[in-house]
Specification:
The chain is an alpha/beta fold and 430 residues long. 47% of the residues lie in helices and 14% in strands. It has helices at 2-42, 50-56, 115-120, 156-175, 187-198, 200-203, 225-238, 252-260, 262-277, 281-284, 291-297, 304-316, 327-334, 370-379, 397-400, 404-429, and strands at residues 60-67, 72-80, 91-96, 124-128, 139-140, 180-185, 206-212, 245-246, 302-303, 356-362, 384-390. Strands 1, 2, 3, 4, 5, 6, 7, 10 and 11 form a 9-stranded mixed sheet that branches. The termini are far apart.
């Protein structure tokens, strides 16, 4: 009897709980969705595309598709100022994002704080590149990125070999410009160094290369990210790591929760920011209200193979092509059993390489060490016309920092405008 009574109580309680949840959960979800939509309306930047971000700030934006020689379809954006003096500006600039990012990093802050707007307002035809594996680089003429692992068999090596030169050629063709200006951040600088060292024709299509937090071999990196890279490298020696996407974009509900619960979210985000980038003074030199938007767009995706390649150059302290850890596969790709080294010093010849380099580093950058900086400076000393170390700057401050315009952006604009005046005077004299 007592047993039956206990079972009855459990059944009754379970029934009440079931019907209670059945009727209350949908209502809770409905109200939660309404709440999330309200929060999204409060900050529409969270899920805005690059063009939506630019247009919301009053700029004209177009999307173009570039198909690379190996079949990747990359969407790139063109940003023009509504106050431009001519319909077809003579100055053309390509901005390239770094690891795990996409083109939106250049248009997220206000017009006086974002490089794309600062250049566009100076009557410069601004193009925003996107590399394979990012949000705007997930298409291919034959491979489906969602189900086909072959799509993800690439690293910064292929970005340098195909993505960059094909974008430059497309932009030059559309704008009828023989030479353009290039601005890269982090991995965006690395792919330019690599391809210019192997393809002099690319170097001669770029007038100035402005490098923000330029990456070399990652030697003496302070960031705890180095432990992750070393682990990836060691595992790759013993186990075959699968091809595929690296990283998962944060769920929308987490990002919105984080933006409205500042104490726990600040702890999480500051930790990620600090570990990866390093820290800087003055409230971490960024717009606190845009932090969630930064991370929404700053985790745009890449490949496992790209991570493995970075792990390789960090652990081996040598800048070389991707090592397949199989002499037969290396032989197939490189006609040799090991992976060939990149020789960036080849760029250091002003007689053969017409590109002039302008470098900006941060003194609090945990990814790029002082040793790495000096080594790169030495390798490119004959083609570098200007170099500056920004005080209290971390790795990510060059794209999201509120003082990036003072340290770097305005100087970039000055170089482009001065060069354009010199070029115009020479043509006028001739």
């Amino acid at each position: 009897m007592y047993c039956f009574s206990g079972v009855s109580q459990i059944l009754v309680s379970s029934t009440i709980l079931f019907f209670g949840l059945y009727f209350t959960i949908p209502a809770m979800i409905h109200h939660l969705n309404k709440y999330l939509v309200t929060l999204m309306n409060d900050n529409p930047d969270y899920l805005a595309t690059t063009c939506e971000l630019a247009m919301s700030r009053g700029y004209h934006c177009e999307t173009h598709s570039v198909t690379t020689q190996d079949g990747y379809i990359l969407d790139i954006q063109r940003v023009l100022s509504p106050n431009r003096k001519s319909r077809s500006p003579k100055k053309v600039a390509l901005l390239m994002h770094g690891f795990q990012c996409d083109s939106s990093i250049w248009v997220q802050n206000q017009p006086n704080q974002s490089l794309a707007y600062i250049l566009a307002d100076s009557d410069i035809d601004v193009w925003l590149g996107n590399l394979r594996g990012s949000f705007y680089g997930e298409k291919h003429i034959t491979h489906n990125s969602a189900v086909d692992s072959k799509f993800w068999e690439f690293s910064f090596q292929q970005m340098a070999q195909y993505d960059l030169p094909d974008m430059v050629d497309y932009i030059s063709r559309i704008t009828s410009s023989e030479k353009i200006y290039y601005i890269g951040h982090s991995m965006g600088t690395l792919i330019a160094f690599l391809q210019m060292s192997e393809d002099k024709s690319l170097a001669n299509k770029i007038e100035y290369a402005f490098m923000l937090a330029p990456v070399h071999t990652l030697t003496d990196m302070k960031s705890p990210f180095k432990y992750f890279l070393r682990t990836v490298y060691n595992i790759g020696h013993y186990l075959p790591l699968p091809s595929g996407r690296f990283g998962v974009r944060p769920p929308l509900d987490f990002l919105i929760w984080a933006s409205h619960y500042p104490l726990p979210s600040r702890f999480i985000i500051e930790g990620v920011w600090l570990c990866f980038s390093g820290t800087s003074e003055h409230a971490l030199n960024r717009n606190e209200t845009n932090v969630i938007s930064y991370f929404t767009h700053g985790l745009a995706g890449t490949s496992v193979q790209n991570v493995r390649h970075f792990a390789q150059i960090y652990t081996e302290q040598t800048l070389s092509k991707f090592d397949f850890k199989d002499s037969r596969v290396n032989k197939l790709h490189y006609n040799r059993t090991d992976s060939p080294k990149y020789e960036i010093e080849r760029v250091n010849d002003p007689e053969k390489v017409r590109t002039k380099f302008v470098m900006f580093w941060g003194d609090r950058d945990w990814l790029v060490s002082e040793w790495d900086r000096k080594k790169l400076q030495e390798k490119l000393k004959h083609v570098t016309v200007y170099s500056k170390v920004c005080e209290n700057f971390s790795h990510l401050d060059f794209i999201w920092g509120l003082r990036a315009s003072d340290c770097a952006y305005l100087k970039i604009r000055e170089f482009i405008n001065q060069h354009q005046k010199i070029t115009a005077n020479i043509k006028h004299t001739i």
